[in-house]
Amino acid sequence: GAVVSQHPSWVICKSGTSVKIECRSLDFQATTMFWYRQFPKQSLMLMATSNEGSKATYEQGVEKDKFLINHASLTLSTLTVTSAHPEDSSFYICSASSRTSSYNEQFFGPGTRLTVL
Amino acid sequence: AQSVTQLDSQVPVFEEAPVELRCNYSSSVSVYLFWYVQYPNQGLQLLLKYLSGSTLVKGINGFEAEFNKSQTSFHLRKPSVHISDTAEYFCAVSGPNQAGTALIFGKGTTLSVSS
């Protein structure tokens, strides 16, 4: 199956700094990428949907100025957590899909654990 | 609008016992249904999916699920579990004409297999 990678797999940063997380589709063109946030023992919460070359669509309650999403190419999307605070600590997961898929198949990255001190 | 309900938040079971993880969905249109597994600190891995056709779907790791339209259910089953099946399981739904839209996930079921 298709492979999606995330980098870094974990990151620790100081409060007030910005952190960039990359999501790459390694062997297919991802026309749409999704960013999720997951708290311990909870389900995935959709943060935003990004289509290549377009501005991301954010879910209600997600601060677009804090969570900057860029989908500049068909294989790369980035999530930047700006001025991170301890409450931003979480597990961030991306997924990717292609418009050529016959159904809404999505491939998930391995996730990035963000810890803000 | 679509929604997914996973009826059990936690399912403890002994090794080699059978298990069923329950999932019900709500939708006014036909759906695609998925089961994903998540091991600790990892992303989601697709176990199986129902798109159309046979209502009994077989997936990886010996899992299977049955689509029941009248009961709007898509329960996941395994006849004999292993310690290694301990993980979080998510049921998800998507509409057939919703390419490019996010899946809708249930809250997850923690399967704990003990010896």
Explain what the structure shows.
The complex is a heterodimer of chains A (117) and B (115). By secondary structure, chain A is mainly beta. In chain A, 0% of the residues lie in helices and 51% in strands. Chain A is globular. In chain A, 38% of the residues are buried. With 115 residues, chain B is mostly beta strands. Chain B is built from no helices and twelve strands. The interface between A and B is medium-sized, with 28 and 25 residues.
Which class of secondary structure composition applies to the elements of chain B?
A: mainly beta
| Spatial gap, N to C terminus of chain B | 41 Å
- The chain-level structural class of chain A is mainly beta
The main β sheet of chain B shows up as: 6 strands, mixed
Low-confidence segments of chain A, given as residue ranges, are none
Q: Name the chain pair whose interface involves the most residues.
A: A-B, 28 and 25 residues
Tell me the helix content of chain A.
Answer: under 10%
The whole-number mean of residue pLDDT values of chain A reads 91
The geometry of chain B reads as globular
**Percent of residues in β-strands of chain B:** over 45%
> What pattern of helices and strands is seen along the backbone of chain A?
EEEEEEEEEEE
Main attributes of the structure:
heterodimer, A: 117 residues, mainly beta, 7-stranded mixed β-sheet, B: 115 residues, 6-stranded mixed β-sheet, 4-stranded antiparallel β-sheet, 52% strand, globular
Summarize the structure.
The complex is a heterodimer of chains A (117) and B (115). Chain A is mostly beta strands and 117 residues long.
